[in-house]
Write a structure and sequence with these properties.
There is one protein chain. The protein is of the alpha+beta class. Among the domains are: about 1-120, Serine Threonine Protein Phosphatase 5, Tetratricopeptide repeat, CATH 1.25.40; about 470-590, Serine Threonine Protein Phosphatase 5, Tetratricopeptide repeat, CATH 1.25.40; about 590-704, Jelly Rolls, CATH 2.60.120. It is about 75% helix and about 10% strand. The protein contains 19 helices and nine strands. The protein has helices at about 1-25, 30-40, 45-60, 65-100, 105-115, 120-155, 160-175, 180-215, 215-230, 235-265, 270-285, 290-435, 440-455, 460-495, 500-510, 515-550, 555-570, 575-590, 675-680, and strands at about 590-595, 600, 605-610, 620-630, 635-645, 650-655, 665-670, 685-690, 695-700. Strands 1, 2, 4, 7 and 9 form a five-stranded antiparallel sheet that branches. Strand 5 (about 635-645) and strand 6 (about 650-655) form a beta hairpin. The longest helix is centred in the middle third of the chain and has 149 residues, at about 290-435. It is flat. Residues about 1-25 have low confidence and may be disordered.
Amino acid sequence: MKRQILFSLLFGTALALGANVVQAQNAESYESLMRKGNEKFNAKDFISAKTYYEMALKQKSGDPTAKQKLTETVKKIQEDGARQEVFYAHLDAGDQYYGQQKYEEALTEYEAALKVFPEDKYVGGQASAVRAILQERQDKQDAYDLAMSQGEALLAEDNFDAAIMQFETAKGIFPNDKLPKEKIAEAKQKKQLYTEKVARFDNLMEEARQFGLRKNYEAAIGKLDQALELFPDDMEANAKRNEYLSAKGVADQYNGIIAVADQLYENKAYKEAKVQYQSALAVVKGDAYATDMIARLDPLIAQQDADEAARIAAEQEAARLAAEAEAARIAAEQEAARLAAEAEAARLAAEAEAARIAAEQEAARLAAEQEAARLAAEEAARIAAEEEAARLAAEAEAARIAAEEEAARQAALAAAEAERQATIKTMLDAADALFDQQEYATAKVKYQEVVAFDAGNPVATAKIQEIDGIFAQMAAELEANYNKAMSAGNSAMTAENFAEAIAQYQTALAYKPEDPTAAAQLAIAQKSESDRIAALRSQYEKFVKEGDANFKTNTFDKAIEAYTKAEELGLETYPTEMIARISEIIEQNKLYELNSEPLMLAAGEAKRFEFNKIDVAVRRSNYIIIKVRNPHPEKTFPMIVSFGGAGGKNGGFVLPIASTEEEKTFIFRIGSQYKWFSEDNTWIEIISENNEVEIGKLEVSRSN
């Protein structure tokens, strides 16, 4: 609005001045008008100067001086207008920033406007007001910035309450500023997250402690690793981790030696097995299992030494008998050579007699062939005479037949025309029948046959034109169907549904068999589908390889996990077969079936299943198989499985019960737990912490 007012005032002044000058122009001379124009020009009143110069030109038309001054004045007016445009642009921008409370930007624009018109009072007043606001704001800003920076520093140190106090101070300085409010919310959220993080850390530390008490060091270390992800520098967690790592190292070393010893024992390498069991005793002093196995091995080693001595004696006796057999073989070979020489002499005599007889037979054959040739020559002469007589008779007969045929030809021409017309009708009838059955392609061929038989046949020609029209309509429909299939194929490609894309492109090619675009897209889709299947194949082979490796080591739980992943890819039946094979092995090697009928276990209830102690020689390969069903699938919860003996609890593990009502089978390699095979365990106990659960099959089995 200010800009419009300024323009109106300037324009109104020019109009008023022009009117006064017009009234006086008859009384003033050219010289007077030029003088006044120059005065106004020098005073930079270019609008008034322009009017005087124009009036002077009316007094002296074409005067070069007046024209020159008028040109200069118009130029000045144009320059002044451009300056005003710049001024108003900065003024408008300054007012806009002022209204948005962007005072620094507003001051920049006002100062730019003042450079164009330094004396402008409005802009000068606005600039002064903005400077005062900025000064006041700067004082507050300093206090605000201090509070915000201190709040940020405290927040970085996780001193949440002190940080919130600083942000509240900043909020009090600028109540409408969003940032302090956002920072307060952020600090409160971080405080909540930190509290939750501490609680999570404490829970993980407690879980690690529980696992450590059960000597499940691997699980304990896993929990501590999770805790250290939350607080990497926590001294207690780091110390506990080092403690459990050391304990796990001893257990792993012992378990590794025992595994080698057990395998050597199973392979009947008793002396080597004894060395390994002695090594295990060096790791775990007084270990009952290793001591017991060494006691078992001593008589076995003695028996093995005795067997070895007997084997050596047997081998020596076998060597003596073999030498005697070799001497007998050499004597037999010499007798066979003598008999072969006698047989060869007899063969040569027989061959000489056979050659003599063959020579006599060849002479007799040549004499017989000469006699046969003489008789054949006499027969050829007789046949030639008979053929000449037959030729003369045939020529006479041909002349008679030609005369008869000419007479018949004339009669046949008339009959042929009648037959031709009948044939045309028959052909048209056949073509019409195909047309009526909408067999247009075949019908067109038949009509074309009529035209070929009877050139220009009007009925057939008209039908061919009609069929061409039908074909044109069908081609349009085919094009539409082709485009529809191509569009569907392209959409399927975008969605990476390559199988659907292949089907659609094949449909398009069915409409246009030679279409290069559809063929190219089909090739791309087939390549993409092939690549997708290849990627699945790579994953499949990785999972199968992992499953096979674990199967070979009788690590059936991990083997089933890998085979299940391969099975989900749906490429082959091998993983399913291997899972069934493992289940069969475990079922065949079942040691105890502790439960077979569904048993509902209430939340918090403990159910103990007892059994006789298992032979220590097979404990390492033991599995526990549990079938579980969640009757309340809206919940997930842990189920604790413990084991022990007469002296109390020795160990256990936790099963996560998922939010599904379908029965789930868990296969746990309990033999990997030290206390399972080192102690005489006679019971398994199940506790469902927060929800009732249905226990189905519960078995103790082994891998072999």
